[in-house]
Amino acid sequence: MVAIIDYDAGNIKSVEKALRFLGQEVQVTRDREQILHADKVILPGVGAFGDAMKKLCQYGLIDVIKETADKGTPFLGICLGLQLLFDRSDEAPGVEGLGILKGEILKIPKKDELKIPHMGWNSLEFPRKGKLFDGLGQNPYVYFVHSYYLKAAEEEIVTATTDYGVLIHASVEKGNVFACQFHPEKSGDTGLQILKNFAGL
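Below the sequence we write its predicted structure tokens.
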């Protein structure tokens, strides 16, 4: 069973729909025991870093997320869910992230020809191809919607990058913890393959 953590995050329904399409049993939940007993756990997210951390705290989800990651359950953060796994974000100065992975979330710098938020399809480069990308060719296109980007402290965990006026760490993998800045649930067949790879771990 795949547990999708429900903290009023915005893109929960589309993630659930994509997983059900792949034949997965899915539970959208904020129940501690359901999350801890799930085979896989996904932290989705669209919205603001500070508000999201407040919601995770309000619903008592911070400890259970850390416990799930610590006990080796395959864990996937999507978009804001990726950002929350790290230490801090320019979007919410003074607000601590989950700190499960080391790094910071920075504002995408303004460049004349580039619109912010970064919204649309970009190709991925694979500095080291992680498990999420099995079965995909070079430079697949995926869908992004974000104004802030990850700069991971540990280069060796970065499995995909994209360029949008700055090098964006678009996906990471460390042990059982995976995350992607883009939306696999909105990335067509490529995104379905990524979710299928995660579900098959």
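The CA atoms of residues 166 and 175 lie 27 Å apart.
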